[in-house]
Amino acid sequence: MSAASDEQRTRSEGATGQPAVGDPRLDALVHRLPPRLASTVNYLLQPSSRWVRIPSGALLIVGGVLSFLPVLGIWMLPLGLALLAEDMPALRASRSKVFDWIERRKPHWLDPSVSKNDRT
């Protein structure tokens, strides 16, 4: 098997064996993050990082549910769901609805020409 066909198969199949869905809206949001955080998120979104993404998403959801404890917060819940959405089609549909809402209500979040620090 050639390296090109192996790379193409890796790119076209997600962790579940289904085609990976690259959402440009997700890429635009990740692009707005600080460089160090953006590289971490890009790593977690790679199909080969499934073994890290699923436990991380599950732990973030548990932390969100336990948000009444110190250090943990409700912010962990949507972050965990977003990570699990890469591997679960039902959550992927919900993530798409959230991106649709962002496009309607907060379009500047998806504008690549606007820096995060330019908006007040």
Set out the fold topology:
Layout: H1 3-12, H2 24-31, H3 35-45, H4 50-65, H5 76-84, H6 89-105
Helix pairs in contact: 4-5
Note the main attributes of this structure:
120 residues; mainly alpha; 0% strand
Main β sheet profile: none
Total number of domains: 1
Q: Specify the structural class.
A: mainly alpha
Instruction: Please give the radius of gyration in angstroms.
Output: 16 Å
Q: What share of the residues does DSSP label as strand, in percent?
A: under 5%
| Average pLDDT figure | 78
Poorly predicted sequence stretches spanning 5 or more consecutive residues:
1-20
Give me the count of strands: 0
Query: Helix segment count?
Result: 6
Distance between the termini: 52 Å
Estimate percent helicity: 55-70%
Shape: globular
H and E order: HHHHHH
